[in-house]
Amino acid sequence: MLNIAVIGCGYWGPNLIRNFMQAPDWQLVWVCDADEIKLNSVMTAYPGVKKTLRFQEILDDKSVDAVAVATPVSTHYELASQCVSKGKHVLIEKPICQTAEQGEKLVRLAEQHAVQLMCDHTFCYTGAVRKIKEYIESGELGQILYYDSVRVNLGLFQSDVNVIWDLAVHDLAIVDFLFSCRPSRVSARGVAHTDSSLENIAYVTLEYENSFIANFHVNWLSPVKIRKTLIGGSRKMIEWNDLVPAEKVRIYDKGITLSAEDKKQKSKLLISYRSGDILAPCIDQTEALTVMVKEFAQCIHENRPPLTDGKAALRVLKILEVAQQSLVCGGSTISMSW
Amino acid sequence: MLNIAVIGCGYWGPNLIRNFMQAPDWQLVWVCDADEIKLNSVMTAYPGVKKTLRFQEILDDKSVDAVAVATPVSTHYELASQCVSKGKHVLIEKPICQTAEQGEKLVRLAEQHAVQLMCDHTFCYTGAVRKIKEYIESGELGQILYYDSVRVNLGLFQSDVNVIWDLAVHDLAIVDFLFSCRPSRVSARGVAHTDSSLENIAYVTLEYENSFIANFHVNWLSPVKIRKTLIGGSRKMIEWNDLVPAEKVRIYDKGITLSAEDKKQKSKLLISYRSGDILAPCIDQTEALTVMVKEFAQCIHENRPPLTDGKAALRVLKILEVAQQSLVCGGSTISMSW
Amino acid sequence: MLNIAVIGCGYWGPNLIRNFMQAPDWQLVWVCDADEIKLNSVMTAYPGVKKTLRFQEILDDKSVDAVAVATPVSTHYELASQCVSKGKHVLIEKPICQTAEQGEKLVRLAEQHAVQLMCDHTFCYTGAVRKIKEYIESGELGQILYYDSVRVNLGLFQSDVNVIWDLAVHDLAIVDFLFSCRPSRVSARGVAHTDSSLENIAYVTLEYENSFIANFHVNWLSPVKIRKTLIGGSRKMIEWNDLVPAEKVRIYDKGITLSAEDKKQKSKLLISYRSGDILAPCIDQTEALTVMVKEFAQCIHENRPPLTDGKAALRVLKILEVAQQSLVCGGSTISMSW
Amino acid sequence: MLNIAVIGCGYWGPNLIRNFMQAPDWQLVWVCDADEIKLNSVMTAYPGVKKTLRFQEILDDKSVDAVAVATPVSTHYELASQCVSKGKHVLIEKPICQTAEQGEKLVRLAEQHAVQLMCDHTFCYTGAVRKIKEYIESGELGQILYYDSVRVNLGLFQSDVNVIWDLAVHDLAIVDFLFSCRPSRVSARGVAHTDSSLENIAYVTLEYENSFIANFHVNWLSPVKIRKTLIGGSRKMIEWNDLVPAEKVRIYDKGITLSAEDKKQKSKLLISYRSGDILAPCIDQTEALTVMVKEFAQCIHENRPPLTDGKAALRVLKILEVAQQSLVCGGSTISMSW
Hints:
Helix content of chain A: 25-40%
Structural class of chain A: alpha/beta
CATH architecture of the largest domain in chain A: 2-Layer Sandwich
Order of helices and strands of chain A: EHEHEHEHEHEHEHEEEEEEHEHHE
Oligomer: homotetramer
Radius of gyration of chain A: 22 Å
Number of domains of chain A: 2
């Protein structure tokens, strides 16, 4: 059993606390928050766990194996660096840091101290995304041609970040998790409809080698909530509708086939269309955070990077930065190298 | 009653022929096609209509008031120019010409000869689009914020045009019809997944003044057919799902409201969310082509431009050309002036 | 403010406790359960409320204005009778008693003691059912022709009651609430597929004067969950799909019209079909139990029967008994008089 | 190649004519109708086929192998009997005759003359129903527990038959086709809402041995069109939604399992719920009538009864008669023996 401390009792902290409490791999020993009222209110349900207003207490406790950081993003780098420097494994909420520069330092620091650095890309631990990853890795879809996501609703307008940092960050984390390739070109277009200058509707496009393209439509001003992703493969295709609990993932045995001779004469394309069964596989209903905290324990036990490690979080952050840059430049396509 | 001649018996011609035959405003007098077998096959059902292989016969017939051109696009300019020069009104299938340059000449020629030049933007004559136009023009939606269309399916790969010219052309025609403003910036990104160099998936973005943005996702490689458009207004919003016959158009009395004091202090946005009734208005089921041929007659009788006139078709063509240019340049945003 | 005591901390009791705690009209003073462990576990969250294992303590407390009975149905009659006899208003979970005979005695007793007797027909206090009642009472639907409900899912097989007592009881309570007329004939057919002799699929039909018919399909063995009700009126019709949160109730301006002359000559029916707008009105999202406990307070203050009073509960119970009798007799239609 | 004659050019006749014309197994030689105008109008498209107003001409033509009867039902028995007596195979539209008595005579006559007697139960030849039959016969569903069909819409009110004879007849034909067992008890309830005495909404229940139950809800006054059937098996279940072209049939690997020990003690039912994949198999899109006319040819070539033979049609007719009798008696359950 590993000893964990949670820093931050705000919006997401209580979910982490509940899951660490229930996890057989973890012993929750400390919870820290600068706001004493909030801290006490959250912790009445967990009388056996130590509370503190001082982060230093946790740093000084050598029995603490790992720390989960669920504080505002502006504090991530400072808090995580100190934990890492004390040899503690760290789990951080996304985005991992405010800038890619900070992220890179943190990743290097964790390597130097030989501790695991994990980012809570929650969606990657859902049954739906794990099932989709299975299909992609098995080769059943064939070559991946495109990834198209629509993530729109009448959303909570954020006062500090635009819709890309609020919603597209999920898609970026998922795409990073599902595919081993990295985008070579990024662009983003969007508009702000309120007096704030924060975009509330945006389109982000990632272009990869081999004609793979990913596009995300994110929107806080949609009359209907949509969470629908299409993944096109050369052999099969996936429709992931996260709002249909009974069948979130559907595999279509459907596509086109170019016959051998056609390939020679481009001018006379002769394409045949295949249409087969549709399968909605049974999806594991385990709460994503439960799977996530288990992975955090396992990567430490096995001394290997977690599925969503600091490097993954850094890649997501880098793309966010480039997308933001493109948005500011009116949608210019910006090249990325990895 | 006006006398009409139809040129071209291919894919679309028979639909025009059937509708002109049924229209009380029109007398179908001639049908012309260079392919005698096809011409005879189509016209057995209409023994009272004259057939010809020679376009010149129609040009020479002074009783012909108007000509409908449903031939391959490469012949549009030549055929339409001759008709116009003979003082005949002309209806042309879309796209109106191969190039904007041709289109401009044709529009000018029609003005010189004082004949009506109409383009068959069929979607603009559907009950759904006409109903949406009513809502927009009544001001019930408030200020229009965005237009987002998804037009995807496992499509017929075309051998001569890419997915933008095949599918996005519909969206461009609809947007031109619905809104009086014109895009100031256009961009397009897409990829080709077959050996042909024709893009089969693309994203086209139009940016307007006043933060109005329109985006079209067109795709020939989707496992599911989707024809869904969201139109966001500051007061109400529309969802148009063309695949749900019983309720294609839905009006959401839903949106956000910024309270007066908030407008002053951007830093503390206080947005309230409204959620009211949803209305699916009864949509006129008349076939779009029936409405279109009636409009063609009426604009001639009333000596006014048709709803989808040559200028509208030319605007669509210009945007197509610029989108194509952006696509070739890897998604650059290109400014347009009108 | 009225003082309330809740008897029973099992499945439903905690929901009542939570709602009475939050209600401005009520002061929760006592909670009673024979199981001390369960009682303590539920009540840790409410340290200010008195707990007891002895029901008599509540009976003896003259400050208690009303009692909510959420115990097993076999104890309802005994507990409620004693409360009523002490002059306390009573709210009972459904079904109100085990037999209609008990129910009748209880209703009479409440009248003698001039206290309000209310049954927790929760569905009647949902926003959806209240909205439907509005439409029916306004006359907008015209004459009501039929009520058809499908309430099926892969359900929890009950070990003591069949699917009619488990699921159709909801429909009976709703129909009693919506319509002032009473069924004159009842029938039920069903089968048991497990070794228990309890039916897990059943069809219940109520026939009324004036050709109004109501039918309920209840099923614990359906692969899909369905909660769909159609209500046909001579002017408009309603579709109530309880599983579509955003638009549970839809009003169709749709139906048939018999023209005047046709009415004379039955042989030549000339019916015309109307098809108008579809409206999904905004539905109040307040939790049904919150509305229910408020009604309980109001009926006491206003000294009037509650919307779902003992008599309503008794009517539901009588129909359940007759339906059960029909089921046993192989589906015979049984007449009822009121 | 077999020679066929079609009698009747009304609503359905032209569909038969078109399909017999296209079928490689058949040579359409004669079409007969008493209405000369209708006959000529339909047959202009088929100049090579002989027309006649006199049925006798067909009877006398020894080259005619088979006759398809698509005339009003009141003439079925007389026309079919004469054809059979002349040794011609006969295909009849449903219902096969006006009364079961006639039907029985006709079946016997066909046996005596050793000709095939087939009824056009079109639905049984759709890809969806054939796929469902495959699943049932393979045993994959386990023991069949129930069949529940909803067939409702704002329907064409018929002036001569009620909704059972118009709509439930399809369900009866399908159920007869899918299952080898026959109902032992039948009941029906319904109401008439127009001045005609013909029921426009009805519920029909068939009860079989082994707790198999089938129920049909048919309704001409529904605001929405529904064509949905649930088939419950002990191992898997089917949802057939005929209005979703892309996935009409869905197989749910879902159900309940009684563990061995539970079976002994009914009082303590311990049921476990299984929830697995959902499969929407690819459905053959061939037009049902094309498959049907092929089966008619094959059963003659192979000298075996067709899939929907006279006996099947007679069973459907008998159940219709008993359902009608139950309807008249106010819903009494009526026993049937086979």
